Amino acid sequence: MIIILKQITEKLFYFDFPGKVILYINSDRGILIDAGIDDRIGRMIYKELENIGVVPEVLIITHAHADHFGGAAQLKKYYPEIKIMASSLTRSVVENPEYEPFYLYGAEPLSDLKNKFLLGKAIQVDQLITPGEDLCFFGEKWQVLDLQGHTPGQIGLIAPDKIILTADTFFPEEVIEKYRLLYHFSLEGALKSLKQLKKLAMEGEYQNFIPGHGKPYAKPQNVIQKNLQAIHETVEIIQEIIKKPHTREEVVAHIIERYKINETVSQYFLTFSAVSAYLSYLESEEMLNIEVRDGQLIFISR
């Protein structure tokens, strides 16, 4: 993999990995936002920082998915004094990364779920950050945004120079077209966060919106709307499926077939979790009934 460090403003850059790593530079000091998926990415970040003569003092983890925190342990080896910051819910998982395959499976996870994509290396969080609070680095203000939905406790940041770092709140068009089923832990939270970002974008005050995957957007309204449409499309599909009584496993099977999702163990449980979020949303909106019949949990549209 060739490292490409791309510049957005005079001080803000990003490493163009599949899971974006943001770098904010003040002279020879830096802030990292997210850390990539594994030790290899951590080493690549270190080499590039050495090349440009920057020492990171802070690492902010936006959310507890391995592709965003898995490289943090390696970076901590290179920079023992670096301060790791995250929200309370994110800390719970990054300090205990086995929780992610646990909650996907519901028990001691299958061996296929113990992979680097679902089980990042543990890292201790030094300081908790809370949505709504202001942080100060190098005399400049950063604002913490509540962007939970994709995961519990996901945060975004309003950086200096009117740049918004959106983590995995929305996905680029190519991801929507490829996968169609967007992974969110809470649909209610995801919809709220998407609408919050859309409102900020429409205000016209911010120069750039930088997602955790894909290119930056100066005007992200269209891509945010496509994310909203993809969610609502899946809601309608699941409503149609459960016009007749279905178990959750049967709904998952329909979605895997409909969206042509790869039939691997990991992908099955990610789909299972995503479908569960949609069913929870429909239940909270009073759009389905739940029954237990013959030892099976049944979902039926109202």
Automatic annotation (TrEMBL):
Domain of life of the native organism: Bacteria
Database matches in InterPro entries: Metallo-B-lactamas, NDM-1-like, RibonucZ/Hydroxyglut_hydro
Pfam family of the protein (one): Lactamase_B
UniProt xrefs under SMART domains: Lactamase_B (SM00849)
The Metallo-beta-lactamase domain, residue ranges: 18-213
Protein name: Metallo-beta-lactamase domain-containing protein
